[in-house]
Amino acid sequence: MVASALVLLVLQCLSALVPSSMQLPLAPTLAPLGEQPRAALARLSQLGFRHVQLGANQPGLRPRELDRSARRDLAATLRRHEVSASGVDLWVPTSHFFEPARADRAVAAVLEAIELAGSLGRCPVSLNLPAAEACAEQGSVIETIAECAAHHGVEIADHAVGAGRWAELGVGIDPAAWLSQDEDPAAGMIAEAERLVSVRLCDLLSSGLRGPIGDPQEGRLDVLEYKVAISVCGYTRPVVVDARQWSDPWAGLEQTGEAWRGSDEVTK
């Protein structure tokens, strides 16, 4: 307890170096909201959100289903609602990248997602890749992904937990995933500050399910420590509110927003 308080004190002191007026915008994940993309975008805009995280697995947004006309229409829809894409999610089971029967399809899906992200303002693509030491023979696959990303001016955020990430790619932090492995997401973020591409906001509940932040009885994430770590890292992009598995994602968005804003009051 004393050590934890000391770490928090140090983080708070370091965060004083970052302008306290900087409030990072939140970007909800679109796919888990349970509505058609256009309807969900309209509702998010009405609620005041100006950034959104798109899902390449979501019906209506799968890159292979979007020709040039459809992509222009998607970009126009985002502009009409005054919402910009903070990134594109593509969650492929890590085993698919090294299973012969599935590897080609997995890589093709990643390349398609990168191309889509490039057409939407070159926003980052979030993936969950197998650990480097676990499948070093897949280096050519990672090289292909890295080359495609560089060609389109898109950064990759690998959300694998802990050490062993691919040096060619950037890093994404999913706090629920870190907590599920009894790891500290704030410490992990600071360790990867120079490669940080995407930061997520969600919690791991006592039930073992993912959920919104702001529940002092069920949640495990130290929101204040996490937010201070974001500031210490100098992260300036939208923070992705990851609503996967939430029982009521719209209510969870409201709860998360309130808890996130409330943490500002503590640090003042």
Characterization of this structure:
This protein is an alpha/beta fold. Helices cover 41% and strands 14% of the residues. The protein contains 9 helices and 10 strands. The chain has helices spanning 2-15, 37-46, 68-80, 103-119, 139-152, 175-180, 185-191, 223-233, 249-267, and strands at 26-28, 51-55, 84-89, 125-127, 156-158, 170-173, 196-201, 203-204, 210-211, 239-241. It has an 8-stranded parallel β-sheet. Helix 1 packs across helix 8 (223-233), helix 7 (185-191) packs parallel to helix 8 and helix 8 packs across helix 9 (249-267). The longest helix is centred in the last third of the chain and has 19 residues, at 249-267. The two termini are 22 Å apart.
CATH superfamily: Divalent-metal-dependent TIM barrel enzymes
| Tally of structural domains | 1
| CA-based shape | globular
CATH class wording: Alpha Beta
Task: Work out the number of β strands.
Answer: 10
Strand order in the largest sheet: 1-10-7-6-5-4-3-2
Distance between the termini: 22 Å
User: In percent, how helical is the residue content?
Assistant: 40-55%
What's the architecture in CATH terms?
Answer: Alpha-Beta Barrel
